[in-house]
């Protein structure tokens, strides 16, 4: 028997109703692929009843469940490959509702780094003074923040981290290569920031959502809740002031 991979798909908010089955799949090491869309408060006008906030963090907390939240079409293709290869447990693939900007891979690193959970998407011009981390739809925000910081002479590295679980499985040397010790870190994700503290460290800043969302176009919701490139730039400058 073999060759059949069970999968299913729904809005991320409804993963709450599926939690017992997801947990058992992880416990039993079953190769199941869950495809969740509408993965953040960018769901917009449907409002807080349908906008996931804590779901990403709580799914990441399930042992042996691999969560993948790709930033663009290239990362999504790589995430699907990773999901097919991860035969020792279930995978949750997180996708957006809103359209995402095009990430030109002739200018940025190839998306193959998804297989290692996190990778340097765009390097600083010289040794990085700050590392900007994100996943999924918010990777575009850290790329914009990097451009603004570089204009002001601040060397910022952008790290895309679609899978914390895959990154945690890498050897320590690779993790240090991507997240060099002693360099301050800022993360941003349109979800509860709980799972990011491990990666930004106690001196870093994790920008996220610690309240329920609101019914409005997602651009307005993001602006109202501080999910902007401006906030990333502000946080990076704050860390650099502390360091100096």
Q: If you had to describe this structure to a student in words, what would you say it looks like?
A:
It is an enzyme of class 2 (transferase). This is transketolase. Belongs to the transketolase family. With 244 residues, this protein is of the alpha/beta class. The chain is built from nine helices and nine strands. Helix 4 packs across helix 9. It is globular and about 55 Å long. Helix 7 (197-200) links the parallel strand 8 (185-188) and strand 9. The protein has one domain (7-243): Rossmann fold (3-Layer(aba) Sandwich), CATH 3.40.50.920. The strands form two sheets. Strands 5-7-6-8-9 form a five-stranded mixed beta sheet.
List the total number of helices: 9
**What is the C-alpha radius of gyration, as a whole number of Å?**
17 Å
Largest sheet: number of strands, sense, barrel closure:
5 strands, mixed
Largest beta sheet: what is the strand line-up? 5-7-6-8-9
What is the helix content? 25-40%
CATH topology: Rossmann fold
Total number of beta strands: 9
Q: Whole-number average pLDDT?
A: 96
- Poorly predicted tracts of residues: none
**Judging from the principal axes of the Cα atoms, what is the shape?**
globular
CATH architecture: 3-Layer(aba) Sandwich
Taken in chain order, the helices and strands follow as EHEHEHEEEHEHHEHEHH
Distance between the termini: 61 Å
Strand content: 15-25%
* Text of the CATH class: Alpha Beta
Number of domains: 1
Supply the helix-strand structural class: alpha/beta
């Amino acid at each position: 028997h073999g060759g059949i991979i069970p999968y299913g798909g729904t809005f991320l908010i409804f993963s709450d109703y599926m939690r017992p089955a997801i947990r058992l799949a992880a416990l039993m090491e079953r190769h199941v692929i869950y495809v969740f869309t509408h993965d953040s408060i960018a769901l917009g006008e449907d409002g807080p009843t349908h906008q996931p906030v804590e779901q990403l963090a709580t799914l990441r907390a399930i042992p042996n469940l691999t969560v993948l939240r790709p930033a663009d079409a290239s990362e999504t293709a790589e995430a699907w490959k990773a999901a097919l290869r991860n035969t020792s447990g279930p995978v949750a693939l997180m996708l957006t509702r809103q359209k995402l900007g095009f990430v030109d891979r002739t200018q940025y690193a190839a998306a193959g780094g998804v297989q290692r959970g996190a990778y340097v998407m765009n390097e600083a011009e010289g040794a990085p003074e700050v590392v900007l981390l994100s996943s999924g739809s918010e990777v575009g925000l850290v790329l914009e923040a990097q451009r603004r910081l570089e204009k002001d002479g601040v060397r910022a590295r952008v790290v895309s981290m679609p899978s914390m679980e895959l990154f945690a499985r890498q050897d320590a040397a690779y993790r240090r290569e991507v997240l060099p010790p002693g360099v301050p870190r800022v993360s941003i994700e349109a979800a509860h920031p709980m799972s990011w503290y491990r990666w930004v460290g106690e001196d870093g800043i994790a920008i996220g959502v610690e309240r329920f969302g609101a019914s409005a176009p997602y651009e307005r919701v993001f602006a109202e809740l501080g999910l902007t490139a401006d906030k990333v730039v502000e946080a990076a400058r704050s860390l650099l002031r502390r360091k100096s």
